[in-house]
Design a protein that fits this description.
single chain; Farnesyl Diphosphate Synthase; 2 domains; globular
Length: about 280
């Protein structure tokens, strides 16, 4: 019956992903079937950690995060947990040799969200982005490479750029909610009340450079992962293009989204480009 326990735990991570992010769960479905379950398992883990620091305001978030972190390491050490999300995550960590330092960096960034509200230097922002997004991409890359660590090392830098681009776009999309609800700003030298074209252009130039570097890595991904990752890239780039056309004040007032018909076109065109090797 142990196999049933494993199955139930993996299904819990899949449910978490689908309920919290329809876009991400849709992108996972574009991966080869061999890769879907472990990516759901990674997302379930990072989603719960993020919920602790962003949502559970009525509770002692620091204690909850401490307990979650302790249970995470215990699950990885023992190879089992009665927490289904942590059990499925430890299974992926052990099966794909995900380095502990990636998990440590992620949990460190989550811990920053407990008390830190602004990032005054590029170094501070980059450190947070590394732990909150880039290492998640690297965990996924371990799965994509299916144990080929030489391939992982070759794609590592570009994978970090893709995670950074995605996270910075999320910062821009959620800039109003982060400031008003959580009192957070992530961009250095950012003044919410004086967000102008110059500041917006500086942020956009940085994201554009990340996207350019990331695309080179996507082209070299194993075929099982390439279509799904490229589609996610195209989706986020569509968000980015919409943000670039918006006035700074509009960015502060309106959360940009991609309509369903455009998402469908992105999937179709990304699939065609992938099939014809036009990425």
């Amino acid at each position: 019956m142990l196999s049933l326990f494993h199955t139930v735990c993996h299904e819990c991570s899949e449910v978490v992903t689908k309920r919290y992010s329809t876009s991400f769960s849709s992108a996972i479905k574009l991966l080869h079937k061999d890769l879907r379950a472990p990516i759901f398992d990674i997302y379930g883990f990072v989603r719960f950690a993020d919920e602790i620091v962003d949502t559970f305001h009525e509770y002692d978030k620091e204690t909850l995060l401490n307990e979650f972190e302790a249970e995470t390491w215990k699950a990885i050490k023992n190879g089992i947990s009665l927490n289904p999300i942590l059990h499925s995550f430890q299974d992926v960590v052990r099966r794909y040799n995900i380095p502990n330092d990636l998990i440590e960096a992620f949990l460190y960034s989550m811990r920053l969200d407990l008390n830190k509200t602004d990032y005054n230097t590029v170094h501070e922002m980059n450190e947070y982005v590394y732990g909150s997004a880039e290492v998640v991409g690297l965990m996924c890359l371990c799965v994509f490479c299916e144990g080929d660590m030489q391939q992982y090392e070759a794609l590592k830098a570009q994978a970090r750029k893709l995670g950074a681009a995605f996270q910075k776009i999320n910062f821009l999309r959620d800039i109003q909610a982060d400031y008003n609800n959580l009192n957070r700003t992530y961009f250095p030298d950012f003044d919410y009340y004086h967000f102008d074209e110059h500041t917006k252009q500086r942020i956009e130039d940085d994201i554009e450079a990340d996207f350019k570097a990331a695309l080179e890595g996507i082209r070299k991904l194993p075929w099982k992962a390439r279509f799904g990752v490229y589609t996610a890239y195209r989706y986020y780039y569509a968000l980015f293009n919409k943000i670039k056309r918006m006035h700074p004040k509009t960015v502060l007032q309106q959360r940009v989204r991609v309509p369903d018909y455009q998402k469908a076109f992105i999937v179709f065109s990304a699939g065609l480009n992938n099939r014809l090797n036009l990425i």
